[in-house]
Amino acid sequence: MDEQAAVAAALEAWPENGCVFLGASLPVRHANAVGLPRMMRVFANRGVSGIDGCVATAAGIATGAGEVVLAILGDITLLHDLNSLALLRSSHVLVVVLNNDGGRIFERLPIATRPELLEPWFTTPHGMTFGPAAQQFGIAYESPQATQELATVIGRYRQSGTSAIIELDCR
After folding, report:
1. What is the spatial distance between Cα 69 and Cα 92, in angstroms, rounded to a whole number?
2. Of 21, 7, 81, which Cα lies nearest the Cα of 49?
3. CATH number, span 3-163
4. Residue 21: pLDDT band with limits 50, 70, 90
5. If 0-12 CB within 10 Å is exposed, 13-18 middle and 19+ buried, where does residue 151 land?
6. Residue 102: predicted pLDDT
7. Domain residues of the chain, as ranges?
């Protein structure tokens, strides 16, 4: 699935003035490229790398705001904060994870001209999917195959009061 199209579809499926958390690296850049389809409250983290604690932050926003949060994260960002999935049992967060099997942002940077360094040290392919993590933490999981299906899944979980991991295969 095309990442930028997926981010556009997820944002289009989200309600006016809804809370959106954007992961650092590609998700925030994709959202910037496609723009917000309507007024939304957008949050993001910045830290040493910007990927630390993103699930925990989204859960905190959901708890503080008393409403559902759409969190669009990259796979490496989610891997860095798997332990915070436990928080999603008591807050309402829909995690849309763009699984491109590693930090693909680096393919857009000058290091991309050095393939011998890019793959082992920067893109960090992991070969994982997030269904087992969702199961381990007792969180709903879906993996829609098309952007049209993504909007339907987001709508269903937004109304359900249940947190979910919605994984998109972007490899």
Report:
1. 7
2. 81
3. 3.40.50.970
4. very high
5. middle
6. 85
7. 3-163
